[in-house]
Amino acid sequence: MRLGFRRACPEDRWRWLAFLGAVLLIGLGVAALDAGGARLCLFHRWTGLPCLTCGSTRACAALAAGDVSGAFRMQPLVSALLAAGAAAGIAHSLLLACGRAVEVHLSAGERRKLILAGIALAAINWVYLAWHGV
């Protein structure tokens, strides 16, 4: 894997703002539905088993409230991804503010290993959720 830096163009900033806006709107919509008592997970409703992301909304709310350990107990994979995504988002925002952008270059083999690692982590997380009855 190679990381490179380049000069940020104006489109980079607009794309980043659009991405952040979309994430915030989706998050607000899901939080509002969850607070209203709507059950969003059809998989859980139909099978009685937790889906891959069961507990994500509650874990996100726990992280926002500062309950890191509670969030990781509810949904470890999503909590880790949210924490890493927040750190990466802050770093990306700071780089854009300085007029720089990061480029990540992965070889085909690295990309394949990253996908397999993601699948393995998702499977382990799903077993954890089923075992703990989330």
* Stretches with pLDDT under 50, minimum 5 residues: none
Provide the helix percentage.
over 70%
Q: DSSP strand (E) fraction?
A: 5-15%
**Annotation field: number of helices:** 6
Strand pairing plus helix content: what structural class?
Answer: mainly alpha
Strand order of the largest sheet: 1-2
Gap between N and C termini: 36 Å
Whole-angstrom Rg: 18 Å
Overall 3D shape: globular
The overall pLDDT average reads: 87
Q: Report the order of strands and helices.
A: EHHHHHEH
Number of strands: 2
Please describe the topology of this protein.
Elements: E1 2-7, H1 10-35, H2 42-47, H3 56-64, H4 68-74, H5 76-97, E2 100-105, H6 108-132
Antiparallel strand pairs: 1-2
Describe this structure in words.
- 71% of the residues lie in helices and 9% in strands.
- The chain has helices at residues 10-35, 42-47, 56-64, 68-74, 76-97, 108-132; strands at residues 2-7, 100-105.
- The radius of gyration is 18 Å and the shape is globular.
- It has a two-stranded antiparallel sheet.
- The chain is mostly helical and 134 residues long.
- The longest helix has 26 residues, at 10-35.
Fill in the keyword field for this structure.
6 helices, 134 residues, 2 strands, mainly alpha, two-stranded antiparallel ribbon
In short:
This protein has 134 residues and is mainly alpha-helical. The protein is 71% helix and 9% strand. The chain has a two-stranded antiparallel sheet.
